[in-house]
Records
---
Amino acid sequence: MQKKFTLAETDIPEQWYNIVADMPNKPLPPLHPGTHQPIGPEMLMPLFPMELIKQEVTTDRWVGIPEEVREIYKVWRPTPLFRATGLEKALDTPAKIYYKYEGVSPAGSHKPNTAVPQAFYNKQEGVKRITTETGAGQWGSALSFACSLFGMECDVYMVRASYDGKPYRKMMMHTWGANVYPSPSDRTNAGKQILAQDPHSPGSLGIAISEAVEMAVQDEHTKYALGSVLNHVLMHQTVIGLEAIKQLEQAGDFPDIVVAPFGGGSNFAGISFPFLRYNLAEGKQIRCIAAEPASCPKLTRGVFRYDLGDTIGMTPLIPMYTLGHNFIPAPIHAGGLRYHGAGAIVSQLLHDGLIEAQSHNQLSCFEAGILFAKTEGIIPAPEANHAIATVIREAQQAKEEGVPKTILFNLCGHGHFDMAAYEQYLSGKLVDHEVTQEEIMASLAELDTPLINV
Amino acid sequence: MQKKFTLAETDIPEQWYNIVADMPNKPLPPLHPGTHQPIGPEMLMPLFPMELIKQEVTTDRWVGIPEEVREIYKVWRPTPLFRATGLEKALDTPAKIYYKYEGVSPAGSHKPNTAVPQAFYNKQEGVKRITTETGAGQWGSALSFACSLFGMECDVYMVRASYDGKPYRKMMMHTWGANVYPSPSDRTNAGKQILAQDPHSPGSLGIAISEAVEMAVQDEHTKYALGSVLNHVLMHQTVIGLEAIKQLEQAGDFPDIVVAPFGGGSNFAGISFPFLRYNLAEGKQIRCIAAEPASCPKLTRGVFRYDLGDTIGMTPLIPMYTLGHNFIPAPIHAGGLRYHGAGAIVSQLLHDGLIEAQSHNQLSCFEAGILFAKTEGIIPAPEANHAIATVIREAQQAKEEGVPKTILFNLCGHGHFDMAAYEQYLSGKLVDHEVTQEEIMASLAELDTPLINV
């Protein structure tokens, strides 16, 4: 039985797919946090190069991928598509399971798919330095890699707790030549303000965003980059699904279900949007399922309203499924999924019933990941384990129903930098983090951001 | 310009190449450490399954790869061949540089190429458990991965200093279900003997081999596996070079120089033997260069004589280039290259002038690795950096001579578990380890093993 479906580098997509063109209800506009009025592209100019701002607002169905970007994509793209023969056998399921493996990129996840074009457009418009924030380091390392290839400086504000406790991705960023600062730092007013209140602050993603944005706006040669949530970031990731379509054609197959982990939405968008197009344009009924942590359940238990992208109000208001921008997710190991909100496009799709969401607790995700490692060989990132947990649930359902469904999921990265989390799980030291309805209600009650009338 | 040359899974070789068939002088036989008489295959039966013993002594040119092994190879094979366009540009060299990337395997190196068939043949002959030793953990994790797929137990004796100081590969082995014991342990007589002398012994590869071998010989359902040096191990790795030949055909190219890091020989054999065949059988003159650490220079400064494979005499005597089995290499980060001797086949080839060797000190290897990471994106394992250092040297030579040479090397693994070493280098904390001629002479003077009359 064929296990691996590969493509030639000439099969790397020449265009990204922009789902906005096919959405029955377009995403609502971002609003100014002060005036609550829709913001124009010009407000984003201090932060992003013009080409990315254009991509953020375009309604074109297809956006060309620059040849220079495709040239770098060749280092890891096309990524392989695998039939999960070992997992299928272990589950004794009639379901056919396929996975797209994005862990073959130099940074080890899908994040370089957008880091490289973001660095490219910045370089093209004369930017010398890009700032960004990172939690555990997946996004920061992807952007460091991309900046290294274009000869640009990269300043990464890394949440202090991760900077101290998870040093290996910091070292990876150093190897690619990036500057990594623990956040809060004394390099910014935002950081100084926090440190004045608490000299031992462990930091947060919200603080790190503030620092990175502050450094970008005060220097004309410096801009800022974000690794998920925004429309153009989601669009860049669609190379994943576009390749998967060709590979499943090779396999003579087509999915009934498409699954991906969900943090801000780019992972999920990357694999599912090209398949959702078959639903939106051709009336197919592929189920696209976002898998989120039970400890950060914005899609399954949050509300759809305007909210801030960061915790202290430096970003526009985005129409999102949110738990409230003050919600602090429990310290699960899937750091990439610890975000209070979802991007505008994905939120609109969920609201319109065009996609589904499931949540999983931490222990069942590691159990799923270890079964995967033992049957397929690859040790997944903790984020990817959420997708695997959903896949197992659906494959067991298919067995109960006796239906040979075809399931595709995004194995978005490897777990090489997460071995301590696996060890904790195996030694019984990991716990689940329950979120009470009271906690969610309390976080949402603090919001004074505009409601969405729907 | 084409960057990546991929093959379909149907291109995975159907046979391993056994260079013994084409060697003008066959490798000398292993000797019994007590009698100094050639040992027969039956002496290896407590340690290895019969099929591997047959492979160890066969002179057949081609040995079939079992379909079950090819099925698992599909998880990462064929591995990609890349044109190092970024590195070429940085070096401003007329040389064309290609690399075969073995880091895409689940364990992150070329080691699973032999771990999987070794586990397979053991499983086929009813073995329940495989024991092995590991230093930093590359080989132990590869065997853990392979045993996991075949549902076999795997007991890894890991050098205590690495067990304590480099825990991440240990955790990886745990994730695949292996038992990992710090060596010396109190599970074996060998271990107890060492611990009685020194309860805080940091261990060594030699002690760990003794423990793994002792556990294998005393239980009929348990056997032992080695990750390099032996003939069958080298042969299993030839899938690397056999694939590279097809990929360079795609590129319309053929190498003038083939380079690989050198520890026990399997890495080097894997990529170079299928090309050496063109020299041996067709009179071509491809230069095959083994790159070893200056701190463990067995090929460039050792002697060709019989020596033990381990430090305390439980293995047969092997005809090898050696620094003496009591030679303790300095604690460089390229743990996979810290071995006192070279396998019999590679030693004979070097003695006969059919291959070359170069050595590099640690700092220049990390410098080469960082240039590679910044220009090609992939962060190499410290072992692989030795090959890159040789490639850079040869590419600069080509530039001086104005000759457009074609260079191929084996990028045998990624450096995800070696980030602390990169960080040490970048912060100026790494040093070179000089080996004096006196140290080498002193180590060799201790040998009472048979000389080779040549």
Note: Chain A touches chain B through 44 residues (CB under 8 Å).
---
Amino acid sequence: MRVGILTSGGDCPGLNAVIRAAVLTGMVHHGLEFVGIRDGYRGLVEGDVRVLNRSSVRGTSRIGGTILGTSRTNPYEGPNGGAANVAKTLERLGIDAVMAIGGEGTLAAANRLADDGLPVVGVPKTIDNDLDATDYTFGFDTAVQIATEAGDRLRTTGDSHMRCMVLEVMGRHVGWIALHTGIATGAHVTLIPEQPRSIEWICEYVQSVYDRRRAPLVVVSEGFKLEGMDEEYSRKGLDAYNRPRLGGIGEVLAPMIEERTGIESRSTVLGHIQRGGAPSGADRVLATRFGLAAIDAITAKAWGTMVSLRGTEIVRVPMSDALGDLKRVPDHRYREAELLFG
Amino acid sequence: MRVGILTSGGDCPGLNAVIRAAVLTGMVHHGLEFVGIRDGYRGLVEGDVRVLNRSSVRGTSRIGGTILGTSRTNPYEGPNGGAANVAKTLERLGIDAVMAIGGEGTLAAANRLADDGLPVVGVPKTIDNDLDATDYTFGFDTAVQIATEAGDRLRTTGDSHMRCMVLEVMGRHVGWIALHTGIATGAHVTLIPEQPRSIEWICEYVQSVYDRRRAPLVVVSEGFKLEGMDEEYSRKGLDAYNRPRLGGIGEVLAPMIEERTGIESRSTVLGHIQRGGAPSGADRVLATRFGLAAIDAITAKAWGTMVSLRGTEIVRVPMSDALGDLKRVPDHRYREAELLFG
Amino acid sequence: MRVGILTSGGDCPGLNAVIRAAVLTGMVHHGLEFVGIRDGYRGLVEGDVRVLNRSSVRGTSRIGGTILGTSRTNPYEGPNGGAANVAKTLERLGIDAVMAIGGEGTLAAANRLADDGLPVVGVPKTIDNDLDATDYTFGFDTAVQIATEAGDRLRTTGDSHMRCMVLEVMGRHVGWIALHTGIATGAHVTLIPEQPRSIEWICEYVQSVYDRRRAPLVVVSEGFKLEGMDEEYSRKGLDAYNRPRLGGIGEVLAPMIEERTGIESRSTVLGHIQRGGAPSGADRVLATRFGLAAIDAITAKAWGTMVSLRGTEIVRVPMSDALGDLKRVPDHRYREAELLFG
Amino acid sequence: MRVGILTSGGDCPGLNAVIRAAVLTGMVHHGLEFVGIRDGYRGLVEGDVRVLNRSSVRGTSRIGGTILGTSRTNPYEGPNGGAANVAKTLERLGIDAVMAIGGEGTLAAANRLADDGLPVVGVPKTIDNDLDATDYTFGFDTAVQIATEAGDRLRTTGDSHMRCMVLEVMGRHVGWIALHTGIATGAHVTLIPEQPRSIEWICEYVQSVYDRRRAPLVVVSEGFKLEGMDEEYSRKGLDAYNRPRLGGIGEVLAPMIEERTGIESRSTVLGHIQRGGAPSGADRVLATRFGLAAIDAITAKAWGTMVSLRGTEIVRVPMSDALGDLKRVPDHRYREAELLFG
């Protein structure tokens, strides 16, 4: 039995640990063969693969990114796309099962391929923690850790200059990274997409912290929207020439806070360093367990399912479970953080 | 209402984050007053406390250890011990509720005090992850992360010299830290107290790795026992003069492996660095949530209960839930790791 | 004898280690008393000080920022400024010597005060490594380390997506942080203020790396200027509406590279996290040695001098040595890096 | 021209950065070919080599250890040893120059080979910083950083339990790692081989710190010797049965301190984690510069020389400069540290 593995969508620390665990256990304990499908669904559609063996995956669990490359190709598009074409490609390459590792888009395509009769299982990946079908996925913990260390650093420089520091973290649609980073760094305000707030509301906290002679720290998701402002403004803000500009929300907030409170403010946009580099120990464990469980799903021919963390256990659920709404930060979790604001 | 907080037993990254969250939310949102009880139950029995306010806990969530000190005193021992004496002390100090943060011993005493009518709630703490009443507690994630980074470092020096590296991590009775560290570092063998193994079994893996021209990495819990050897020998081994010695199991294993396989072997005993220093982001989040929930338990007068993580939520359970058997590594979790041995 | 210590200008990891070493050795071995002057020269001019003792500095060598606060006030400006007024303030506060820790501006003012007869010694501080009078100062090593770790992270995500990653680091006038970060991360091009280059020159390297199927990494100082473009354009670039915008040079370069090469490009601006947080071990050692040597300078009444690193030794030099030209990256050091470009 | 590179002796973070820089610049800018000599002089004597090209060294500057392997073989020993045999081997393999990277033993052999007419240049490597011919070498900075982070961690757990923590770091003959780690962590006593002290002297500091209600931190080199005790005892100490035991000096000191002062004491022996893992940014820069300069030495046919750091510059010196006395910690540097003891 020959298994093809692909990683699709944005990269995430832990992808290689999934691949490594799957390949090692599959080869040693189930006699499977493996190929890596290059650059996600692009490689699947174009039949671009390479053999994976023990030495391909050696030492990779502690390396960020994906050794297989990734893309945002949709396997139902293009001249070679569609289930029928993919089926032919798989047959030609002798691939009997596909392990698709990715987020909602990846899993939606994987689920459709499975519905169309192809032998596909899924592994959920989302650095933003926005998939509802699993308690957590790998990558999120690493991102929070990196953002936490950055926030710790910002606090000491903020304190020295009595500045308001604004830290923008990932999270276009959901606020999980900001929520956990805000709690971990002791942020005075945390702003997430699920909870629009006005600039006045924000400045009130900032001012009260400053009045206690503390340097305010604001953690904000990239997808946070300022209440009472049209979305484009909120996203773009105004530059020094009073024209809409293209910076992130952190770069918008800092000058607005400074203008309204008179408190010197600086923003830092963490960006891609949140998704690169060595995965945390916890993420390597979770990714490894997902890889092992995905091999079980393959040997059980449980097409259309994906692996999932529930409490402390790895279970198997329909891929469709991951395809409804995003997992947003619920109100009670935001209120937890809010208890410590100011 | 005045709340006394104590930390008891071995220290653990995250203790200060519990204290900080409890004090901040209790003061700001519930009008509570706080005192810190010094050195665990010693301070409770002796009435040794100090006022805790906002500035006492400022910036402490990212600092390891406990700002309150800790000890292993049993509140039922000594001339001032026992529930009746403690009740008098609490009355004298005007303390209306006690938050006891600690492991099994601490919680057992806290539960007994609650049974004896005292207003006590618990917060579970175990760096070893050996408490059954909660999915995880704070400190464990940090310990795994530190051990994982150490293991990563050992691998490169092992590879350079083609040595077998033995990494001894904490875990006197349970193997959780070793299990997760072994998976995260890609250890070739992981040895835990729950699964005694013979030296021959271990050496077989070590040799097979070496034969593939890889430097073997062995991760071992301090409480692992070699099968087929009396316990004292297993614990103490023999020194160069053929007498029992007092080193950890890692220091015992390395020369045994070297003697049997001829492969140069070195051991590293991580020791106390696993429990000190800044908590990981994840541990700060969990500890903060525990602190908030413990204040809820106090305002609800839910004496005799403790906070607990179940899946992604914090719940309240009877403290007695934590007092039965230790949470050992179940067989299926060890088998997961075993799939990747060799 | 009573010593006042001030920190002035941008903060820098290691400031507290200087203060701690000075206070501890001064108190214990020379019977000195200490006050901390708040917020740099602002506190000096306004007479805003607080007593420093052993407990004020306890545990601070590993904490970033400055416990004294900082500002960019010039002691020769304002109604209470000028040497005569400062002399009166010092007399009123009983301060017999001032230790001024800061960069070129700070040391220029300190030197002028010393020339005007005040008892001032200097400690050089520059995170950018732009002071000529010392081999290195504290803070620089930490900044390079943080930027190196960020660059390592960017590489794995760049490799996964085959993107060109642009990392902007500090260095408004000199390229030392970029030079060392570029070497340490194995950047394919490093761009510094001392060496203007054209966008075509940059893209040639980027393209050649991409053609070898590697993801290009570009490290750039914030003060780098694109050759053949007017400075404002170079600094501001054009936004999506073809108007000058205010992003850093990294945010300017990435879209220019993408436009010219067709290679997807992303920028990360590290910003303030480079100057916050725990100092590296090396910076703590250097800062501590500076603090000890500054006390020697004070007890020797060597007013107008500053401490300096020469090779492995700390020496004393005239403060005026630090006030000429900035220490720029010499050509031969840039050529070193250039040997590894592409 | 074909260059063989070997790494010999204990491994050290930065070795791969030397190799990478040499190979890249040598291939691209000088048209050189490269082979890696396996396992130090063993590979030289046995003619065990492999081709090194761009892809062999890709991404290795941030990886610890040595991709070439290492050993402690002496090239003048064994049936194929000696200059004449080695010369034949080099000729047979078409190797025109050898770059030997290592410590005193390695450089002594390299120098002898050069004296015997072989085309050899050296690159100094010593994690202990004990080579006199260079200000610093790579690896030392990383080791100090790792030990500093460990010391930071030990402080918080020490403070929580009011224990004396003893941290043993590397340094069999010289105390540089301990000296810098002690300064960086704010140790209350630092003990180095160059400065024997009595247990009473040590305990006096420990007691005075404890009396101020601080948890004492002792940093000790593995090669420190207790004054007034015969060396074997000092090295081995007594175990719980009053017999000489084999633990490191840290494991000897902790119980002696506890016995004499009554203060609970714990030791941590850092061991091999100090020499493994990713090099610090500073070490990668230094190693890279050494690699570049070594290629210059080779193209200049400067046989018998080695590269060296002097201040901020890389220079070329006779290898014999490294072969006299070890570079010990001078008295004035130890006195610096001593000023902050207690």
Note: The two ends of chain C are 58 Å apart (CA to CA).
